[in-house]
Amino acid sequence: MAILNNLLKSKKLGEILVDSKLLNPTQLEYALNEAKKRNMRLGTALVSLNILSEDNIINALSQQLGIKKIELSKIAIDPAIGKILPEALSKQFKMVAINLSDNILTVVVSDPLNVFAGDALKKAVNYDIEIAVAREHEILRAIDFVYSAKDIIKADDSEHIALNLSKEPQKNTTGVTSAASSVFGASAGNDDINKEIIESEDINIIKLVNDIIVSASKNRASDIHIEPLEDEILIRERIDGELFETKKLPKQFINPLIARIKIISNMDIAEKRNAQDSRFNITLSGKELDIRVSILPTINGEKAVLRILDKSSKINKISESSYIDDITKGKILKLINKKYGLFLITGPTGSGKTTTAYSILSELNKINKNLVTVENPVEYKIKYINQVEANLKGGMSFADILRSVLRQDPDIILVGEIRDIETAKIAIQASLTGHFVISTLHTQDASSTISRLIDMQIEPFLIASAIVGIIGQRLLKKLCDKCKEPYEPSAELLKELGLPENKTVYFYKEKGCPECRGTGFRGRIPIYELLVPDDNIQKLILEKADASLIRNMAVKNGFITLRRYGIIKALEGLTTIEEVLQATQDI
After folding, report:
1. What are the structural domains of the chain?
2. pLDDT for residue 485 is more than 70
3. pTM, whole model, 2 decimals?
4. Phi and psi, residue 245, nearest 5°
5. Residues with Cβ < 8 Å from 583, sequence gap 6 or more?
6. pLDDT at residue 59 above 60?
7. What is the mean pLDDT of the chain?
8. Cα–Cα distance between 383 and 49 in angstroms, integer?
């Protein structure tokens, strides 16, 4: 951490740039003379003379001074923190406060060697000061937001956070001076959008989008739905698998709102007739969020869905999972440590298959193994794993990339999803030729996976030979630990579930409290079933037996079904029996 007092004793900029071998002494002398003639600082002169770029200078300062280089376009700024610095000071020395933690105020500056700025900063605040460096135009934009943004929604000031644009604001050709028009006015390229911005210039659209994202992050939402209705805009968040209404807005703001989302997602702002997909990254309260954006035209206007992925969240190894019993965990660990074979993770959309796949990868991630993934898109970055993002729009299918991957001497391959016959065939061939292959498949349960592969025209003898294990899974809503209540189930329910009627057992039900926002649930838990094809099941596969026959045979050999596993979790008080029955009703 570079504290201000240390920086004030640092070298001059010219010395730093020469030490970094970005300048030679002759260039430095020429730039200093020009800076004196033009009455400008050395850094500004170097950029103006096209000797160095602003990024060259920032990188050198960051490395030589041991300070952070901040990309403000990816940082969410709380105006309450920003306003710790007096506005006049912030604008005079081009600096903005972005974080306050443990009595240390992080201040981003364009010129960390400005002694006058450092002295003024020390006098202005009563905190220890950590200095970081950023591009000047990004700092100016952040300053403009902190001191001039207007509130849209009545909310706690601490929740108003800025998402800075990743591009320079365009020149405003309309003459409108509001924050919204300066962002959208010239870049929209659409008269209708410009007209609506002018008519609603008191509305800070930037702040509106920020508040929507902050609310979703605070509520642990996985998705944000921005839906234009006939006469209003409905904002909903998907929390623990269910959609909840969070706010409604006047219909007139739909175009500016969607335009703002398109801008930060680098979409075509003028395209309103076709669907668009993109993504952007932000840092919010220390969390790095990857937000995927889908825009879809509807009869009432364009609808946006933003999927939120917390990239800073830790992926636990499968051995560290607290939701898998020790016996099942031991079986999984034994299976995934085989040298070759196909291990499948199955379930419907939103059942947590990708998370399980990454947990297995994290378990297998060792320096003596070459791990390669083929995904669309890459959801989590893992050190030491070669992750390839399938460019389906560019004409490269999973199968095409998988062929290339097999020439990379892999030990373990993750195929994000088996979507077609070709991918399935290559994955199975790879698993039979000395590679361990992990993949996901959309099926209802583990036993029906066999039928699905046969339907994809995979030969039964290949399926029987390749598959070492199949996980079927679901996600269930987790009861809130603060307010869940036990109750004794009826004898009829116990009989239906196959539980002993002469033994006292308890299930739990939701109640609702402030901790869980009155829902009775907080978070989700996975339930699993693990099918390991033994000789009897392999024989059934060769006979193209029905999924129910395979399941019955597995149960005879100790197979625990999803429903049975869910009942165990209900008895442990982690979820309700109603959740279990609903999630496993098709099995």
Report:
1. 4-148 (3.30.300.160), 158-310 (3.30.450.90), 318-475+526-563 (3.40.50.300)
2. yes
3. 0.65
4. -70, 130
5. 474, 475, 476, 527, 562, 566
6. yes
7. 83
8. 41
